[in-house]
Amino acid sequence: MINKIPVFIFILMLFNSCVGTKKLYNGLTKESSTLEYLYDSKFKDGSKTDTIKINKPLIVDLKLTKSGNLKKIKASTLPLIIYTSWKSEHTYSVGQNVIKEDISDFVRKTLINEFCRSSSIFAGSTSNSNFELQIEIDSIGAHGPYYSNGSFLYLLLVYSYSIAEYAGPGIAYSKLNYQLKNREQILKQGTFKKEIATEPLKNNFQSTKELRKFYSSQLTEALSFTLKTNIEAIVNEIDNYLYNTAD
Predict the structure, then answer these.
(1) pLDDT single digits (tens) 135-192
(2) Quick check: 147 and 76 in contact, CB under 8 A?
(3) CA 203 from centroid of its chain's CA atoms
(4) For residue 88, what are the CA distances in angstroms to 21, 54, 153, 163?
(5) φ, ψ dihedrals at 209, nearest 5°
(6) Over the stretch 206-230, which tens digit does the pLDDT of each residue have?
(7) C-alpha dist (Å) from residue 114 to 124, 188, 236
(8) What pTM, to 2 d.p., does this model score?
């Protein structure tokens, strides 16, 4: 019975080294995270001098899929009589399934809130104003590497094994195009884009479940920050344009 235990562990380790993509994907996508963030732009007092209708943004980037993606980049196993080791590398891309909000609705809602907070303009989704803001989400996404490795050593009645997982650094990015119109006339248009890298995550979590959960949440949070940066830039530019035009 004693001899059977190390053999069983060896077989289990070898199995985990070869079959793990589906389990890893399930761990990364088990819970969803929010894009919501704290509004910290400077609040602008005074009456709103203009109103803008904000249409629901159009997402033209099809890389952000409903279920995301986990792709095995490379994997290797070294099976020997008394020692075996393995390592693998995956690339994980965030999907809509781990984001609580609909992205288009979130961008529109956040634009409205930001205009009402930090500009001289009142914004809404059903405004009767002649001003109209169209947003195109040209690119958006968050992805990064995920690594796992392990080893098993067996010497007669003595054996040892280790498993380690770590992730990152990941990349989050977004690019927003906008057009400000008065009826059908384009008054101003522009593009803002932002990309940031996340911190690498080592194997210092209580469990691999916690690591996977945190990594997915970290990528979503980074994506939220890129949207925040671009949305604030759009609001600021349009506010300055209409204010200067009015003067």
Answers:
(1) 999 999 999 999 988 777 767 667 676 778 999 999 999 999 999 999 889 999 999 9
(2) no
(3) 21
(4) 10, 46, 19, 12
(5) -60, -45
(6) 889 999 999 999 999 999 999 999 9
(7) 11, 19, 9
(8) 0.86
